[in-house]
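**Fold tokens**
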Amino acid sequence: MEKKLKKIAGQQLQLLRLERNLTQEQMGEKLNLSTSAYCKIEYGETDLTLTRLYKIAQALDISFMDLLARIDKYTDTDSYYKKNNSANNVLNNNDPESYNTLYELVKANCRTIDLLCKRIEQLEQRK
């Protein structure tokens, strides 16, 4: 769940940044971080402290509590575990067709994510 939470937090920070027409470089400057370090936050590769989240909230001109609420809104643990249990049920059936279907779905999602990441990079380079 820890990875999932970091990913959700990063996604929400990215959306907030884009809503404010800020680049990752500008956010890094506001937070006294390198662009690379800030990117790792958005990609969910960095553990966030409360202090860091507070500073990010200030940089994004949002209240700390609103930022936490926005992250929490997308952290539905019951839904997360139900989805994982559904996938586990498919895997536990030992049905090759189910495996293939699940594998193809995962592959398609990975391709979609890659395309979206590339598109985001293209849009950020235009700024």
Notes: Helices lie at 2-19, 24-30, 35-42, 50-59, 64-73, 77-92, 96-126. The chain is about 80% helix and 0% strand. The chain has a mean pLDDT of 83. Residues 7 and 126 are 25 Å apart (CA to CA).
